[in-house]
Amino acid sequence: MGKKTTTSVRDLLFGDLWEYAPAPQSTDFVDLDDAYGHYIDGEFVDVGAEDSFQTINPATEEPLADIACADEATVDRAVKAARKAYDTVWSKMPGRERAKYIYRIARMIQEKARNLAVVETMDGGKPIKESRDVDIPLAAAHFFYYAGWADKLDYAFPGAQVRSLGVAGQVIPWNFPLLMAAWKIAPALATGNTIVIKPAETTPLTAMLLAEIIDEAGLPPGVVNIVNGKGETGAAIVNHDDVDKVAFTGSTEVGKIIQRAVAGTGKKLTLELGGKGANIIFDDAPIDQAVEGIVNGIFFNQGHVCCAGSRLLVQENIHEEVIQKLKRRMSTLVVGDPLDKNTDIGAINSREQYERIAELVASGEDEGAEKFQPTCSLPDSGYFFAPTVFTDVTPSHRIAQEEIFGPVLSVLTFRTPEEAIKKANNTPYGLACGIWTDKGSKLFRIAGALKAGVIWGNTYNKFDPSSPFGGYKESGFGREGGVHGLLPYLEVR
Ligand code: NAD
Ligand code: MN
Question: Is any ligand 1 atom within 6 A of the Cβ of residue 228?
Answer without folding.
Answer: no
